[in-house]
Amino acid sequence: MHTEDWPSTIEEALATQERLRGRVDLTDDLPELPPTVTGLDVAYDDAGGIAAAVVTLETAGLTVVEERTHRAKAVFPYEPGLFAFRELPPLLAALDRLERTPDILVCDGHGLAHPRRFGLACHLGVLTGLPAFGVGKTPFIGSHEPPPASRGCSAPLVDAGELVGAVLRTQDGVKPVYVSAGHRIGLAHACRLTLALTPRYRLPETTRHADRLSRAALR
DNA sequence: GCGACAG
DNA sequence: ATCTTGTCGC
Fold first, then answer.
1. pLDDT tens digit string along A95-153?
2. Cβ < 7 Å from strand B, A residues 72-111
3. Which residues bear the site annotation Interaction with target DNA (predicted)?
4. Would you say A108 is a known binding-site residue?
5. CATH code, domain with A55
6. Which domain holds residue A150?
7. Residues 121-160, chain A: which have Cβ under 7 A from strand B?
8. Is A21 within a domain?
9. In total, how many domains does chain A have?
């Protein structure tokens, strides 16, 4: 979309985060189990090429109802904390191609569990106005105790005295995932949805589908 | 001050 | 992110 005025320097990106962070709304109006869930992911090749994929699943049954991709060149370098400026452009383009407006976005990355409380899930939520939350595979900021080993157990993720997310066990005895709210959803609800999306594997079905599709779109 | 740092 | 063999377990 408006990649003309997209931040191109770290200073501009930081200023953008500072300007948009106040637009995050944590009010949760979402039904307990929205009709659909939309996952997003981006794959990279070794020549600056990137491919974004968005996949919408029916929440009950986790079957694919729609999927879209978008290929492009990376316009921002990877920088911890500014991750969104790299993945957002292709993701927004892919989202624009969906016919059905998503009920909620499940991002692979963090939301409030970010140094300035404005990770990818928050940014994506604010720009689209859609509910969004993040499910990260690895920790970024914050400290926590290891959650009990059973699926469904979690431990609070705290940073600077603030509760920024949850470390959630999605499978018995398997490494946990990092869940944080992004926009228009609460942490507990985000955790419940994450569990609904992980009946069998560690990562949400949305993320698994989007990951597979983005890699395929790269070729 | 130094190191670590989502994907 | 991506590069990769073998290996353990259902």
1. 999 999 999 999 999 999 999 999 999 999 999 999 999 999 999 999 999 999 999 99
2. 78, 80-84, 108-110
3. 78
4. yes
5. 3.30.2170.10
6. 3-16+28-217
7. 134, 136-140
8. no
9. 1
